[in-house]
Specification:
Elements lengths: L3 E3 L1 H4 L6 E7 L8 E3 L2 E8 L1 E6 L2 E6 L2 E5 L5 E4 L6 E7 L1 H11 L5 H6 L5 E3 L2 H20 L1 H20 L12 H9 L3 H6 L1 H8 L3 H11 L4 H19 L4 H7 L5 H12 L3 H9 L8
Parallel strand pairs: 1-3
Antiparallel strand pairs: 2-9, 4-7, 4-9, 5-6, 5-8, 7-10
Helix pairs in contact: 4-5, 10-13
């Protein structure tokens, strides 16, 4: 199968950091391609089969996907109402955004996974995000300087809100030290180590931490760490080919049965069933 290669210099005019357009089903690119720039796409309506890195996945209304330069993809079998917003971001601009966010954003995880980062937005989330893409599409046609500023702000927002976060829900009155501790525990070496890392970083007693976690996070320190581990296990199952046992160990569980129990409690599925459901969708299921 021929793979087209698109270069950013063929798509971007001088001074442009990217492009944002709304694309209808008849204009969706059915050619397998990759490119030397980055791309976000947000499905506003309908559905299609997304061929991505030799796999197939149905993308429906609310699908938000981050396409990296190495990804090979195309759309097939779009429904008649399929439309999506396509945001192209130059490599230089993306590098600047990652540099702004700093080393703590763990950008390497987004780049190294076999499959591109994917989020299925709830209706309320989609309704909140659509105006940003609409504003970008309009600004691109009217004022390229303003568009470049909006593009950088939108890129940082998309990365931090949907692809670099682990859905950590903190109350507004959380102590500053606890918020910083929660962020530190998102780092792989810390959630792998578990409670010992929590105690070492916080310099607080286990009894005090338990009281504070229950008050502000409504969970014990152990539950907090396990939630982070399960969230990262789900990402690894969906976007890598690593074995379930390897993922279990990488996120910090030394008891496979306990990992399976917590995973099924969180998702309602076994790790194997979760991987099969999220990573492979038969073309015959396309509308």
């Amino acid at each position: 199968m021929k793979i087209e290669f698109y270069r950013e210099q063929d798509w971007l005019f001088s001074g442009e950091d990217g492009i944002c357009t709304k694309i209808a089903f008849q204009d969706a690119d059915t050619r397998s391609h990759n490119h030397n720039y980055y791309e976000f796409f947000l499905v506003g309506a309908g559905s299609a089969t997304h061929h991505i890195n030799d796999k197939k996945k149905i993308v429906n209304t609310g699908a938000l996907v981050f396409i990296r330069p190495k990804d090979v993809h195309s759309f097939q079998n779009p429904s008649s109402d399929f439309c999506f917003y396509n945001l192209l971001v130059s490599r230089g601009t993306m590098d600047s955004c990652f540099s702004f966010l700093g080393a703590g954003c763990n950008a390497d995880q987004l780049m190294e996974n076999e499959m591109p980062p994917f989020r299925q937005l709830l209706p309320a989330e989609l309704n909140n995000l659509l105006p940003s893409f609409e504003q970008l599409a309009i600004a691109h046609e009217l004022n390229i300087v303003r568009f470049n500023t909006l593009l950088r702000a939108a890129t940082v927002n998309l990365l931090t809100s949907y692809f670099l976060s682990y859905n950590l829900k903190l109350s507004h009155d959380i102590p500053t030290w606890l918020g910083l501790l929660a962020l530190e525990m998102q780092k792989q070496q810390n959630y792998q180590e578990g409670l010992n890392a929590l105690y070492r970083i916080s310099q607080k007693s286990p009894e005090y931490l338990c009281r504070v976690f229950k008050k502000h996070l409504n969970k014990t320190p152990t539950e907090f760490i396990n939630d982070i581990r399960i969230a990262n296990a789900k990402l690894a199952l969906e976007y890598t080919n690593r074995s379930i046992l390897q993922i279990c160990e990488e996120v910090g569980f030394d008891n496979t049965s306990h990992f399976y129990h917590l995973f099924k409690k969180d998702t309602g599925l076994s790790p194997k069933a979760f991987r099969e459901l999220s990573s492979e969708v038969s073309v015959s299921q396309a509308p």
